[in-house]
Amino acid sequence: MNKLTCHCGGIEAEVNVPENGFEKVMRCNCSICKRKGYIIGVVQPDDFKFIKGEELLTLYQFYTKTAKHYFCKVCGIHTHNRPRSNPKIYGVNIACVEGIKPFEIENVPVNDGENHALDQKK
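RE: above sequence
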């Protein structure tokens, strides 16, 4: 298990990262993710467990209000999200996970959140 923390340390979770890294990493070009610029590590519900600080989380939702984006209300760091394509999984900010070096990851694929399949185009 790897530890995930926000900047101030108020939020702490355990993330089960396989020995050879996250099963899936990506960026997203939707309106919020492109502004955050973070790399998403996808984990299953059983691979993410809060240790402390859940009360410090602030939820942000927009548009369809299906996806859930979580931030620390003390330091403002985005720690994780629950994507609208599959709200059961977690998208973790890999820069918040101990032992992960996001600037060493090359060729991160981009999820096309800008043209999401659940959006109704007119």
